[in-house]
Amino acid sequence: VQLQASGGGLAQAGESLRLTCVSPRIILSTFTNHYWGWYRQAPGKQRELVAQITDGGRINAADSVKGRFTISKDNARKRVFLQMNSLKAEDTAVYYCHAQGRDTGVESWGQGTLVTVSS
User: What's the confidence (pLDDT) of residue 1?
Assistant: First the structure.
C-alpha cells in the first residue's frame, strides 16, 4: 500500500494543522480492512504512535495528544486525517502515515510530513 501524507508546515503554539493521508491506487475494500494511524518522530527521539483508528472505528491515541488531536477517516474518499489543535512546541516532529492490514499484519509507511511548532 503506497501512502502519501500532506498538510504539515509551520504553526505557532496554540494554532491548528490538519494532516491528510491518501493512498492513490488503493481500492475501497483494501482501505476498509486496514488499521490507519499516525506516528511521529522528533529530532533525536524514537518514532512514536500518535493515534490509530481501526477498521471498526476504534481509536487509540497517545496520552500526550488526547483532547487536542483527532484521527478520523473517510472511507468513501479513502483518506485519513489528523486534526491537530492547540499545538505545542513539543509536537514538532516528522509525522508519518501508517497502515496495517487487519488480516495480514503487513505494514506500510508514508514519506512523512514535517510539523514545526514555534512557541
Answer: 81
